[in-house]
Amino acid sequence: MNSSIIENSTPEQSFLNISKIDMVFPTPTGGFTALKDVDLQIEKGEFISLIGHSGCGKSTVLNIVAGLYQATKGGILLQNKEVNEPGPERAVVFQNHSLLPWLTSYQNVELAVKQVFNKTMSKGEMKEWIEYNLKLVHMDHAMHKRPDEISGGMKQRVGIARALAMQPEVLLMDEPFGALDALTRAHMQDSLMEIQNELNNTVIMITHDVDEAVLLSDRIVMMTNGPEATIGEILDVKLERPRSRLSLAKDVEYNRLRSEVLTFLYEKQRKVENIKSTITAPASTPKKRANA
Ligand SMILES: Nc1ncnc2c1ncn2[C@@H]1O[C@H](COP(=O)(O)OP(=O)(O)OP(=O)(O)O)[C@@H](O)[C@H]1O
């Protein structure tokens, strides 16, 4: 962390301050500047989506906020305190659930709850709290099942319950629904909106899905292509809540926002990739079967 971050901070600082971050990764051929001057202030209770082409640096931003990476320049302030390492006040939900396979859903959540509340909650309170969080994600009916006994969507729900049960200041989600089929994904988005309505968490979510970003977010942060990726544009999403995907489908403002994100991604930040040149047939191709 650059010490000037702390010196320059004032009591009016935003809740979460991502301050002028650079990230240079060492590589065998020299430093690779993945991020350059990423600067973003987030208010308590805001839902932020990070969107951008593959490899632009979204996960790197999230990992720096999580305290898993240290920025080369600049840094993170959460409620005016610098972030240098992972902590339970910044819970992360990954694309793949990362549950411990030998523990039930209940026990997976319990592990996180014990880590945070061992000294402040009685056994009974912990049980109540674990059950409450599993109920919040509609998993109370399967809380005693192990990960191999439940579906992908259900595992992801447990992962979210585990993160929420830590009562984090910030929920960091790295493509949380990326591995799910479209219908399950829609259910999960609806659940997340319900939970958000109830708890008003501060969330940073990475997504590749434009509809998901518009549906869930208060602001969509669009990143330029790397190297030296940075924030290209920020879109305010002022659609009324609670939001319903069905009524939004025909909403003029929803469709305007959607088209702004698409324009950013596919016109302003279009990735020029010559697919033909990357897919070349091997020198000897298998011969067709005689009777084919
Ligand atoms: N540990 C590392 N060492 C070297 N380069 C890295 C490292 N981690 C990430 N990078 C590079 O930094 C850039 C940003 O990677 P990052 O994973 O943050 O992108 P992303 O936007 O999250 O991608 P995706 O959408 O595909 O998950 C990429 O070019 C990646 O190759």
TrEMBL record:
Broad class of the protein's primary localization: membrane
Membrane topology: Peripheral membrane protein
Keywords associated with the record: ATP-binding, Cell membrane, Membrane, Nucleotide-binding, Transport
This protein's record includes keyword Transit peptide: no
Database matches in PROSITE patterns: ABC_TRANSPORTER_1, ABC_TRANSPORTER_2
Signal sequence range: none
MF GO annotations: ATP binding
Residue ranges annotated for the ABC transporter domain, each copy included: 18-250
Subcellular location: Cell membrane
Superkingdom as given in the UniProt entry: Bacteria
Entry's family note: Belongs to the ABC transporter superfamily.
NCBIfam families assigned to the protein according to its UniProt record, in alphabetical order: ntrCD (TIGR01184)
This protein's name: ABC transporter ATP-binding protein
Source species: Colwellia echini
